[in-house]
Amino acid sequence: MTATMTRQTEATTLHNRGACRIHAAFGRAREQGRAAFIPFMTAGYPTAEAFPAVADALLTHADLMEVGIPYSDPLGDGPTIQRASEQALAAGTSTRRTLALVKELRARHTTPIVIMTYVNPIYAVGPREFMRLAQDAGVDGLILPDLPPDQDLEIADLAAEHGLAVTFLIAPTSTPERVALVAEACTGFLYAVSVTGVTGTREGSALGEVPAMLALARQHARVPIAVGFGVKDAATAHQVAQVADGVVVGSAFINAVRAGQDVGAVAAEIAAGCKRAE
User: Fold this and answer.
1) Where is the active site (predicted)?
2) SS3 state at 16
């Protein structure tokens, strides 16, 4: 093999690293008759010192884990995650500190970890430097809730250069054209928002317009589809698991931490709810 071919192979391997790990996690869950369980936790919550133990408890049951960079203007997050971000920021959890915390988790866990972040924290660090730090920390992918995939190709391209998969969001209000655009741009998984609004706000059924939205998305997506927003317990997780490849749960764990509950036990119960009906 020539030196040029070796470099090309290494570049291709790096480009696909995060995506391969994420897709493998979804595949293992599917083989076991489950939707992938994807817990979320804000980095540095409830404190930077306590966060690792909370994350460890979640990672014990997770197929993938989302770690949120605390941000002062999280437009897509409900009051529960907003308060967690405010608390983490007040205690000094920055973007760089978040990536350092993830690096500590990676030393103990092989579970894929994706970062949920708005674009401003990326620009504050500098896109190339952010991607370098994320790669060094062992991050597998980025979830970008406020970045339309057709408006800033630099971030997606830099992510790919550093082996990071990218995930964008669709919602019940997304047009068919937008669903097609977003679905085709995702390299990690496609994140389908179950409600029109913010996290942690749905009452009653977790499905709503989700089945129709997923049917449309599957016409275009080449990646697994996970559903989040409004999934709060084993019952709602079970509903979503019947139609989605993955189930994202966030506010329920922040509420559990705030109430002093055993987060691992809550995660175990919700993870059990992700089993598909036979």
Assistant:
1) 66, 77
2) helix
